[in-house]
Structure formats: structure tokens, C-alpha cells
């Protein structure tokens, strides 16, 4: 069982939204291409992966919150980051966002070294997390206006209307954010995270506190957004059904390390389980290691 | 995207305007916030105004020193409210748990600081201008009668208030809302040392050099010289300006260091106590 895996990108993710050139561009084929073909490749296949984490370590005082993890995300993919409380998911995401400086190792996002070169790429990414909130006294429209201006969104008024329609917030746009239900607030946070149409979206528990119907609707929206924009999404969640539905790859963390990293189907097959939740419990309770030792 | 716009030192008026708009929306939505801006300066000015009135009737020197108490109160309010205006706007982000959103956005630290500086002037204007008019109406003290000297006093006091506000914001960013009380109280450390209500000569000799290291001391000495001796000392204002340049640079340097430390210690995700 791989402890630290750097998987090749699932081919389905590569193909989505990219012409056949995208496939040609991989590996050794690139040097054989003409300059025009290379230019096309640069457009459809960025030289650097959206996220590359190399031997990342983050130690708080003496406790390693993240302990030497490495992974790379493919463009246009949705990857789930799973793990119990204290597994290191939030620290990993915060480091990718540039909010935390690694103790050692390297994180590059859209080719920029984080957090040193974060201003090269912050305009092209966004995030949603339960650790931050939108100012409660401002209306949804005011909040989105402020963040739209910070991100330099063109035609901002129109973009806010679009998001209002897409996230079913049109009737609420002029209501103070503090007077919304938990589910509505989550949708506002999602609207903020999409205001700049990011190429890279980091989501921490995006459907927490939503009723099943709204949660399903949000998942469908995220899938559509990813498909239409060829965006890369990294999703931290405790909802295994959500991860199973949305993610083509799952990274499972435990005690700051990557315990497993594969597609949901291969994880189910490897652990001989029917659901990701069972796989998660096996890993959390160390059954995977016992199984491995027995073999 | 050019190298300049990618830099941490890039400056976008649009992003500064976005932050100002955010604070404007907030102030507009909450009348208690507006009342709070005017309430305390008014109470303080009226209290000190009556005290000055009483002393003027009973002491010869103070009869000649007309207005020094009210002048001191109003200039102190510029210093104190300027810092508070800066710090409270910053604290609003901590209270709203919005700091992570801002730190993850393309907003640069210098743009954030610039927006907070402008908002401190806006908040100060809302709070202090009505009080200066009340001082004129109740006690016949015309702060605007100080003319160009008032501009020099104002610039120096604002620079000090920003320097302290920037430093305190860095402390709150690094240490969380547990450091919030510093934002409300740190300026009172300046009160005895900057000789707001009495001349520097009143302090013990060993403490006087410390007082002269603080820019507001020059402003309050300058104000007393203007009101009592009717003399304006531009040299005092230039000395204060030089000290303020050092203090402001120190405040920004400390803020950037504390921000870096907050990134290392994951404080930007934990905005509680």
C-alpha cells in the first residue's frame, strides 16, 4: 500500500475540456512538436500542475501536523482530501492557499511557490472554508461587490447577478448575510469562492450544514462548474458519499501523512469494501495496516 | 500579468477602494457604531471644558492659558481616535472572521494598511468635527483658529496614531483576539509620557528624554506655546515629523514581521482568543 503516492493524472481528467493535443503534450512527445504545436500545448496543458506538494512538513511547536506528504493534482480534476480530525487536511489546504508557511518542503500552485510568490496566482484561485465567514452586516450583494473588486472581476454587477441565479440567491441579494440560514450562508460563501471564476478551487466541507437536497444541488453545481471551466478542485470533506460522487481521486490522510491515494474504485477494490466510508474506517482504525502485515 | 502587478509591493487603488467600501457599508448599516464615534469625545470635551472654565475663574495663570485644556483634549482625541479608528476597522475583520478571506485574496498588506488609514480619518472626522463645533459653541474655543499650526499638529498626531495602530494590528494578527485589549489601551501609555495636559518640565528629569522620544510630546508642547505665548515653533513640528517617520517605518516593519510569524504559526486560520 503506498504511503506517499504521486499518481499520474487520471486520463479522464486530462481529456475533459482539452483537445487531443493535450494528450500529445505529455512526456517525451513534447520536444518533437513544432513551435505552433508547443504553443497550443502551453495553452491547453499548463507546464506546471495546478498543485504540486513536495515533501511538505509543518510542525507546530513540536507536533508534526503534516509529515512529509507529496502529491500532484492534474488540471481539471476533482480530488478529495479525507482524514479524521487532526489528520492535517486543513493545514495542508492552508499551506496551499499561502496562509501557512511550511516548516520544510515545497508547495507550488499554478507554478508559483507558496507562500513566497502567492500574489502571482491569488487572482486565479479561490476557496471556501468553515474557518472563515463573510461579514454578517453586509448584504450578499455588498459582500460580493467588495470581493469582486478585490479580485478585479470585470462586469462585476453582471457577474453578481449570474451567481445569484446560479446559486439560487437572486431574491436574497439585498439581505444582510447575518440574517440567512446556515444553508444560505454556505451558498454565499460558495458564491464568493466563484466570484473570480477561479481555475483552482479549494473547498473545505462545502456541504456541511446543508440539507440533503441543497447539498446535492451544490454538488451538481460544482461538477458543472468544473466541467464548464476545466477548473481543478481540491475538496476536503467528511462526507464519504460526496467524495465518492464528486472525486475521481481520493487522498486519505492520517496523523499528518498520506495513508492512501487512488481512485475511489481502486480503493474499494483494494480494501474489499463497498463504500468509501468503510475504507475510511479501516484506515482510521488501522485495519489496512493489520491486513498488510498479515499478507 | 506583469511582474509589477504580481509583486507584494504592487498597489491597486481599486483594492483599497474595495476595502473602504466594505467599511463604509458596515458603518452605514449600524447606527450604534456611528453614535459611539461621537459619544465619548463629546463627554470628555464637556468635562474638561467645565474644569477649565472653573480653573480660569480661580487662577491667574490659567486665565492667561485659556483653552489649553480643551485644546489638549481635542488634540488628544485626534491621537487616540486616530489609532482607534485604524484598529477598530482592523478588529472588525477579526470579529467577522473575515481575515482569512482577505489574506487569501489579492489584497496586499500595504493596500490593507492604506484603506485602514483612510478609514481612520473618516471615523475621526465623524467623531471629532462635531465635538470641535460644540467646543466653539459651549466654551468659545475655536480649534480651527490655530490655522496652519493645526495642520502640522494634525499630520503629526495622525502619523503617530497610524504607526501605533499598524503595530497593534500586527500583534492582534499574530496573537488573536486575546491581544484585542491592547488596541483599546495602548495609547494611554502615551498619555502621561507625551505630556498632554502639562509641560515636559513637570516630569522628573530622568523621564524627560523618554518624553522627547515621542512625537506627540512636540505637538502638545507646540500647542501650549501657541495658546499661552502665541508663538508657533516649526522646529518642534519638524522634529516630530522626523521621529514619526522612524515610528511609522518601525510600525510597518513590525506588522510585516508579525504577519510572517502569523503565517508560520497558523494564526491566520485561528482568529479566536
Brief description of this entry?
Chain A is built from twelve helices and ten strands. Chain A has helices at residues 11-15, 21-24, 35-44, 89-97, 140-150, 156-166, 182-194, 212-229, 240-246, 264-271, 276-284, 287-294, and strands at 51-60, 63-73, 78-83, 104-109, 112-114, 125-128, 200-204, 232-236, 249-254, 257-262. Chain B has one domain.
List the helices and strands and how they pair.
The complex is a heterodimer of chains A (295) and B (273).
Chain A: H1 11-15, H2 21-24, H3 35-44, E1 51-60, E2 63-73, E3 78-83, H4 89-97, E4 104-109, E5 112-114, E6 125-128, H5 140-150, H6 156-166, H7 182-194, E7 200-204, H8 212-229, E8 232-236, H9 240-246, E9 249-254, E10 257-262, H10 264-271, H11 276-284, H12 287-294
Parallel strand pairs in A: 3-8, 3-9, 6-7, 7-8
Antiparallel strand pairs in A: 1-2, 1-4, 4-5, 9-10
Chain B: H1 3-6, H2 13-28, H3 31-58, H4 60-64, H5 68-95, H6 99-103, H7 109-139, H8 148-175, H9 180-185, H10 190-193, H11 208-211, H12 215-229, H13 234-264
Brief descriptors of the model:
heterodimer; A: 295 residues; alpha/beta; Rossmann fold; six-stranded mixed β-sheet; four-stranded antiparallel β-sheet; disordered N terminus; B: 273 residues; mainly alpha; globular
> SSE string of chain A, helix = H, strand = E?
HHHEEEHEEEHHHEHEHEEHHH
In angstroms, what separates the terminal alpha carbons of chain A?
11 Å
Per DSSP, what share of the residues of chain B sits in E-state strands of 2 or more residues?
under 5%
Determine the mean pLDDT of chain A: 83
Number of domains of chain A: 1
Tally of strands of chain B: 0
**Helical residue percent band of chain B:** over 70%
Report the radius of gyration of chain A as a whole number of Å: 20 Å
Amino acid at each position: 500500500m503506498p504511503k506517499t503516492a504521486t499518481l499520474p493524472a487520471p486520463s479522464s481528467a486530462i481529456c475533459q475540456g482539452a483537445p487531443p493535443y493535450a494528450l500529445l503534450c505529455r512526456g517525451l512527445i513534447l520536444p518533437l512538436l513544432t513551435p505552433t504545436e508547443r504553443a497550443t500545448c502551453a495553452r491547453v496543458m499548463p507546464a506546471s500542475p495546478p498543485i504540486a506538494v513536495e515533501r511538505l512538513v509543518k510542525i507546530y511547536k513540536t507536533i508534526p501536523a503534516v509529515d512529509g506528504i507529496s502529491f500532484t493534482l492534474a488540471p481539471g480534476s476533482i480530488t478529495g482530501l479525507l482524514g479524521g480530525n487532526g489528520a492535517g487536511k486543513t493545514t495542508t489546504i492552508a499551506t496551499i492557499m499561502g496562509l501557512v508557511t511550511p516548516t520544510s518542503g515545497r508547495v507550488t500552485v499554478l507554478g508559483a511557490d507558496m507562500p513566497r510568490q502567492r500574489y502571482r496566482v491569488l487572482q486565479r484561485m479561490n476557496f471556501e472554508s468553515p474557518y472563515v465567514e463573510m461579514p454578517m452586516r453586509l448584504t450578499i450583494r455588498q459582500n460580493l461587490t467588495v470581493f469582486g473588486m478585490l479580485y478585479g472581476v470585470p462586469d462585476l454587477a453582471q457577474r453578481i447577478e449570474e451567481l445569484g441565479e446560479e446559486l439560487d440567491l437572486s431574491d436574497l441579494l439585498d439581505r444582510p448575510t447575518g440574517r440567512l440560514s446556515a444553508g444560505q450562508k454556505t451558498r454565499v460563501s460558495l458564491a464568493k469562492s466563484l466570484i473570480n471564476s477561479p481555475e483552482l478551487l479549494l473547498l473545505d466541507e462545502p456541504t456541511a450544514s446543508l440539507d440533503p437536497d441543497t447539498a446535492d444541488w451544490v454538488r451538481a453545481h460544482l461538477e458543472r462548474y468544473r466541467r464548464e471551466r476545466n477548473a481543478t478542485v481540491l475538496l476536503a470533506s467528511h462526507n464519504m458519499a460526496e467524495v465518492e460522487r464528486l472525486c475521481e481521486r481520493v487522498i486519505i490522510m492520517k496523523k499528518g501523512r498520506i495513508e492512501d491515494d487512488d481512485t475511489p474504485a481502486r480503493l474499494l477494490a483494494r480494501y474489499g469494501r463497498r463504500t468509501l466510508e468503510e475504507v475510511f474506517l479501516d484506515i482510521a482504525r488501522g485495519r489496512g495496516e493489520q491486513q498488510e502485515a498479515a499478507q | 500579468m506583469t511582474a509589477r502587478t504580481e509583486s507584494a509591493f504592487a498597489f491597486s487603488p481599486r483594492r483599497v477602494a474595495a476595502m473602504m467600501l466594505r467599511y463604509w457599508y458596515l458603518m452605514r448599516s449600524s447606527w450604534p457604531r456611528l453614535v459611539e464615534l461621537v459619544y465619548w469625545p463629546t463627554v470628555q470635551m464637556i468635562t474638561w471644558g467645565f474644569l477649565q472654565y472653573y480653573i480660569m475663574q480661580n487662577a491667574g495663570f490659567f486665565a492667561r492659558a485659556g483653552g489649553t485644556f480643551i485644546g489638549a483634549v481635542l488634540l488628544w482625541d485626534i491621537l487616540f481616535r486616530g489609532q482607534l479608528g485604524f484598529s477598530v476597522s482592523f478588529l472588525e475583520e477579526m470579529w467577522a472572521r473575515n481575515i482569512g478571506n482577505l489574506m487569501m485574496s489579492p489584497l496586499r498588506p500595504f493596500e490593507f494598511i492604506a484603506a485602514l488609514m483612510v478609514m481612520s480619518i473618516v471615523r475621526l472626522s465623524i467623531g471629532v468635527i462635531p465635538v470641535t463645533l460644540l467646543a466653539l459653541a459651549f466654551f468659545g474655543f475655536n480649534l480651527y483658529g490655530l490655522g496652519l499650526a493645526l495642520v502640522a499638529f494634525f499630520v503629526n498626531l495622525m502619523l503617530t496614531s497610524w504607526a501605533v495602530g499598524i503595530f497593534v494590528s500586527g500583534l492582534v494578527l499574530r496573537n488573536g483576539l486575546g491581544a484585542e485589549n491592547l488596541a483599546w489601551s495602548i495609547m494611554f501609555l502615551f498619555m502621561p509620557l507625551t505630556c498632554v495636559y502639562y509641560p515636559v518640565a513637570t516630569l522628573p528629569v530622568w523621564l524627560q528624554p523618554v518624553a522627547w522620544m515621542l512625537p506627540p510630546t512636540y505637538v502638545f508642547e507646540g500647542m501650549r506655546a501657541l495658546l499661552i505665548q502665541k508663538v508657533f515653533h516649526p522646529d518642534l513640528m519638524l522634529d516630530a515629523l522626523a521621529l514619526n517617520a522612524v515610528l511609522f517605518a518601525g510600525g510597518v516593519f513590525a506588522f510585516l514581521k508579525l504577519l510572517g510569524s502569523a503565517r508560520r504559526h497558523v494564526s491566520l486560520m485561528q482568529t479566536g482568543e
